[in-house]
């Protein structure tokens, strides 16, 4: 469905950023060692990160950052609110918006694969003030996800025992995040690859489990099939009875989907540290989108098959803030079918998923802050990198955000989770709206400056209509997310605050930067499409593939190449 417009593989693919480095490689290409090539920076002036992430790393980073506890546990709340049909329809519909966003992001990022690309594009293609607001919104979003997953890790571990103190779990997990992210980027890539691969296998296993038990392969011998779509039914009422109640139930499922489903932004954030990005990134965007769509659509179908929307055990688990996977529809179904051991295995894998997602958020948040510093929208001191190309101060600041997870020491973990979900849903939707807006300006610039999209490394379909579709959907959902507080008897100050804070903060950031810096809206024929492009193309022209260290790694590179 998505296409790459240019055969870039035909070009001699190295890792060069500066002109001096380019001359060195050009003068003795055949003699240069792979370790020496890999130590060079990522391809644009001033950027000291290193291109050491392979295709397999980036594909699994995209999956790992998206699939966390929301997929395995929080999805059950959507089932309670709307019923199986509403949940399935909402997740399917939202995937069409993610497709539109993916095509917008992929087309821009593969053309110019730099660090923190899409938040920097907002300033280059729209307005520097727009880029400032967008960049800080994305940073806050990613940084807030870190304590969210830390809170989730605590809940999951307490599924087995309350013996370990909350503070101890948070502290240990934060230390591990620090160790993984402060080492070389390939260490993060390998860690995330294996953790995300575990998620991949768990999802496949749960889908197979769903099929087997629904046709009678369970201790009860119960062939329940789609029974729960008939009794109690495919839709349920929320807040009101009748058509309005069913509509609100569907809307709540759509809000759940808009928080749960992501993907293209995590792939894009790795562009500045990807090997051979003009070849690797188009494949990664396509692979991640199609895999995630299959997982989310089939996953939403599976939970509606396994558990009725009025299941008392699942409702009690959510209302009481039950720990770990106790509220997971899969675990609820296993308990009802008297299947032992599997719930503990699922909980262990969900713990891996939560840890992996949090690890990805530390990476993405630190790189977004680094990108802001590169553009002069954050202190220049944040540009400091280790010899391994890790922006050390950025990582440390993000780890400090993780300390917010200690809020659950004095509040219910379930309450803290709901706060973070409300805050992050709005931020994520603002981020996607920014991406689509940036793309539409970029598309206009290509047209105004006579650049053919057929020559791009990646050409999405249905543009610019897909961009407008994604923008309209995300913009509307940004304001819909906290609608429940406006219903009679549903007012909640924390819900209102966390649902609409970023909607108010972003315009303030935009206005302040515009006044201070006196920025101007970029006209289509004046947008700079060539900044950093020469360095990227120089890197591509001199790229030397890093050989696999052993046969096993070669097999992995081939499978995910």
Automatic annotation (TrEMBL):
Topology of the protein relative to the lipid bilayer: Multi-pass membrane protein
One GO MF term attached to the UniProt entry: amino acid transmembrane transporter activity
Subcellular location(s) of the protein: Membrane
Family matches, as Pfam families: AA_permease (PF00324)
Keyword list, A-Z: Amino-acid transport, Membrane, Transmembrane, Transmembrane helix, Transport
Signal peptide boundaries: none
InterPro entries assigned to the protein according to its UniProt record, in alphabetical order: AA-permease/SLC12A_dom, Amino_acid_permease_CS, APC_YAT
Residues in Amino acid permease/ SLC12A domain copies: 57-523
Segments forming a coiled coil: none
GO cellular component, one term: membrane
Name used for this protein in its record: Carnitine transport protein
């Amino acid at each position: 469905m998505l296409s790459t417009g240019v055969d870039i593989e035909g070009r001699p693919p190295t890792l060069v950023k500066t002109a001096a480095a380019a001359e060195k490689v050009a003068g003795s290409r055949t003699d240069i060692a792979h370790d020496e090539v890999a130590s060079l920076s990522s391809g644009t002036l001033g950027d000291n990160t290193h291109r050491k992430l392979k295709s397999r790393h980036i594909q699994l980073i995209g999956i790992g950052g998206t699939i966390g506890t929301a997929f395995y546990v929080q999805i059950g709340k959507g089932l309670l609110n709307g019923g199986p049909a509403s949940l399935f329809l909402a997740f399917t519909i939202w995937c069409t918006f993610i497709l539109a966003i993916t095509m917008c992001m992929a087309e821009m990022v593969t053309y110019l694969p730099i660090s923190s690309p899409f938040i920097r594009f907002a300033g280059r293609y729209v307005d520097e003030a727009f880029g400032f607001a967008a960049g800080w919104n994305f940073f806050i979003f990613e940084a807030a996800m870190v304590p969210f997953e830390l809170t989730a890790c605590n809940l999951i571990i307490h599924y087995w025992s309350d013996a370990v103190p909350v503070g101890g779990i948070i502290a240990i997990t934060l230390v591990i995040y620090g160790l993984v992210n402060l080492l070389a980027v390939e260490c993060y890539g390998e860690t995330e690859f294996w953790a995300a691969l575990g998620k991949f296998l768990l999802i496949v296993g749960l889908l197979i489990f769903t099929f087997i038990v629904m046709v009678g392969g369970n201790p009860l011998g119960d062939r329940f099939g789609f029974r729960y779509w008939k009794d109690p039914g495919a839709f349920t009422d929320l807040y009101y009875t009748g058509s309005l109640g069913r509509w609100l139930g569907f809307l709540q499922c759509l809000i759940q989907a808009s928080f749960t489903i992501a993907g293209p932004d995590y792939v894009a954030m790795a562009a500045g540290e990807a090997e051979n990005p003009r070849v690797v990134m188009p494949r990664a965007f396509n692979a991640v989108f199609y895999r995630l769509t299959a997982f989310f659509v089939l996953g939403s179908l599976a939970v509606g098959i396994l558990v009725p929307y009025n299941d008392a055990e699942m409702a009690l688990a959510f209302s009481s803030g039950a720990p770990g996977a106790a509220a997971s529809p899969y675990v609820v179904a296993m308990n009802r079918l008297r299947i032992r051991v599997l719930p503990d295995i699922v909980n262990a894998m969900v713990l891996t998923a939560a840890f992996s997602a949090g690890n990805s958020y530390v990476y993405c948040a630190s790189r977004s802050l680094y990108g802001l510093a590169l553009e002069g929208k954050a202190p220049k001191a944040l540009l400091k990198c280790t010899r391994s190309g890790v922006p050390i101060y950025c990582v440390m600041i993000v780890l400090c955000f993780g300390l917010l997870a200690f809020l659950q020491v004095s509040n219910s973990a379930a309450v803290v989770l709901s706060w973070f979900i409300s805050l992050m849903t709005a931020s994520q939707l603002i981020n996607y709206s920014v991406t689509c807006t940036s793309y539409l300006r970029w598309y206009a610039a290509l047209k105004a400056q006579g650049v053919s999209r057929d020559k791009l490394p990646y050409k999405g379909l249905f543009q610019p209509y897909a961009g407008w579709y994604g923008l309209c959907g995300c913009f509307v959902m940004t304001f819909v997310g906290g609608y429940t507080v406006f219903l009679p008897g549903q007012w909640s100050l924390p819900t209102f605050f966390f649902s609409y804070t970023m909607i108010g903060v972003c315009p303030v950031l935009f206005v302040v930067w515009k006044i201070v810096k006196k920025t101007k809206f970029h006209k289509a024929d004046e947008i700079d499409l060539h900044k950093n492009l020469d360095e990227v193309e120089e890197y591509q022209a001199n790229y030397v593939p890093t050989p696999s260290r052993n046969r096993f790694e070669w097999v992995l590179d081939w499978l995910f190449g």
